[in-house]
Amino acid sequence: MGKMTRRDFLRLAGGVGLSVPMAMRLPTPLMGAAGLSPLLTACGGEGDPLVSPHHNGNGTRFPLRLPEAVGVGDLRFTAAPTEWDLGGGLRAPVWALNDQVPSPLLRARRGDRFRAVMENGIPHDLILHWHGLAPPDDMDGHPRFAVAPGGSYRYDFTVDDRAGTYWYHSHTHEHTGEQTYRGIAGLLLVTDDEEEALGLPGGHREIPLILQDRRVDADGIPFFQPFGPAFMAGYMGTQALGNGVRDPYLEVDTGLYRFRILNGSNARIFRLGLSDDTPFLLIGNDGGLLPAPRTVSAVDIAPAERVDLLVDLRSHPVGRRVMLRSLPFTLSGGMGFMGGQNLQGEPLALLELRVAREVDDATPLPAALPPVELPDPERAVRERTFRFDSRMMNHFINGRHFEMERIDERVPFGETEIWSFVNESGLPHPVHLHATHFRVLSRSGGRGRVFPWEEGRKDTVLMQGFETIRVAVRFTAHRGLYLLHCHNLEHEDLGMMANILVE
Ligand SMILES: [Cu+2]
């Protein structure tokens, strides 16, 4: 099984007119199921598989899976190719941890010791990253620690992170997109005393939800075969998955629900809204609870971003069906096409809520949230600028591709700095920083404002076309080599990533 090198990737990136021998270079025990025809069709033939009979909720829906959570004291993850039921017995080839898609739902308390062994049974190198946590650098999943097929990696660190909706996924250089897409990604929920004291909805009214899009063939089977435009816009499809289930529904009662939502897509941005205009009470994002709850009718969530939403269904009649949708939107800067179609911003039905039982639920809405410790821009001692540029299927930070051993920035531990992320193209980039959270100060150009879901602490911020985003940053957890990168996984895999040495 050949490892796809950067050169292969670039050759694929020239993929208009992709030949069969080239396509056969794709890594794949999974190739058989998807076959070559969807790829070839997508490259200009008739019957574009993007127009799938499975998308947008016109047909049968399938029950959302809500897996039991597991603790983090003694985990063993076995990564391996397997099959997964997408709903209704439609079995798809995946790469999974412990035969589960998404990967096992983890729950930790602040202060827990996190111990895990990852055994690599997929035909690629592999390493796992705990997205949003700030562990020591050799525990963070930097791609320099990726292990070969048959190898294993041991994690042992203390979860010293604020309560929040974190997640984990593959971070193998040049393969993050493919491995995450094929199934290696899961949620990691952290709680602490502060959060518990709020009495937020729990039990069956706390819904961990990973939203993803998939490109599927005529049988509804997802496949990962990026070609030309996907290396610019990122890899997108029109089949929505919720917790690994296609076109899911959830039976709910007339209560107050907490949805802890991750956009686990490679490239697609969702604008979340409910079909009957029930508002969201936004209480959290990437960095845990917000400084204050905010009522919003829609929330934008880019790949790797998370939102924590309360949805009050107490006045909904039994029998009502409400669709969580991605609403249509237009990108600032205007680019999102794939294969000639503009998928970014296309509407998508994500999860249908079916009100099935009437109950009395007296759970109070939180009037206030605990204070959030944030870096103070008044105390900044330095400014840095990171220019994100995309040209000819290539993606750069400050004019450079990622190199495993090159240190791109040296940042003093504990000092507050102002960083500017500058987008020099029309492509959207969700910018992600490891090892700490930042505070979004301003956005100029493009949408020109900071949104309610960007208050508090963030580890990923969406920078649309030609926007500049200023953030305050301070590393306070560990010294070591960490990463700043675009979380459009195709951009990341094509080198839009930089090494940050905290010293
Ligand atoms: Cu990007």
Would you identify the regions where 5 or more consecutive residues have pLDDT less than 50?
Answer: 1-57
List the strand order in the largest sheet. Answer: 12-11-10-14-19-16-17
Q: Helical residue percent?
A: under 10%
- Please report which band the strand proportion falls in: under 5%, 5-15%, 15-25%, 25-35%, 35-45% or over 45%: 35-45%
Please describe what this structure looks like.
It is a single chain. By secondary structure, this protein is mainly beta. The chain has 3 domains: 62-196, Immunoglobulin-like (Sandwich), CATH 2.60.40; 203-357, Sandwich (Immunoglobulin-like); 377-502, Immunoglobulin-like (Sandwich), CATH 2.60.40.420. It is built from 8 helices and 33 strands. The strands form 7 sheets. The chain has a 7-stranded mixed β-sheet, with no helix packed on it. It has a 6-stranded mixed β-sheet with strand order 1-13-23-20-15-18, with no helix packed on it. Strands 25-24-27-31-29 form a 5-stranded mixed β-sheet, with no helix packed on it. The longest helix is centred in the first third of the chain and has 8 residues, at 6-13. The protein is globular and about 60 Å long. Bound molecules: copper (II) ion. The site of copper (II) ion has 6 residues, from loops.
